[in-house]
Amino acid sequence: MQDFITNYQNELLATIITIVTLLVIKFVLSKTIRKVGSVSDLNKVRTRLIIKYVSFGLSVLGVVVIILIWGVNFRQLGLIFSSVFAVIGVAIFAQWSILSNVTAGIILYFSFPFKIGDRIKIMDKEMELEGNYIIEDIRAFHIHLRNDASELITYPNNLMLQRAVLTLNKS
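User: That's the sequence. What structure does it adopt?
Assistant: Structure tokens below.
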């Protein structure tokens, strides 16, 4: 064990610095996202969801940096990454609408044009149920809307960004 520590002292130090730095960045970003959520009076569930996305992104970044620190053979790593990215690419292509809804959910969180309790009207010619809706919940993939007949409608987040939405009254 002592030999391992002596031989890889620089790598261990760089790994510890990387982990501490990423934890500090995660803490600061989480605080910032919570502050944006509280100042904008956003739902706490949405705030936690965005924090999960940021944490996942930082974890992936941390793994990549640690792999670079330890000097993994790039030819072997390239083979592994190309195989993994090929599978992920097929999955992403097959599920592009899910990704667009998640991305739209993140954009809706930070731009907050409307929030839970607002009464809106969606200007969508293809929507069968016309009228006014109350936003009941904003999730990662879709928004729950309740119409005047008390029917619950789930509407994809990406369509909320693509269609004109008229805010009738704020909650």
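The helical segments are 2-7, 9-39, 44-69, 74-94, 96-111, 157-162.
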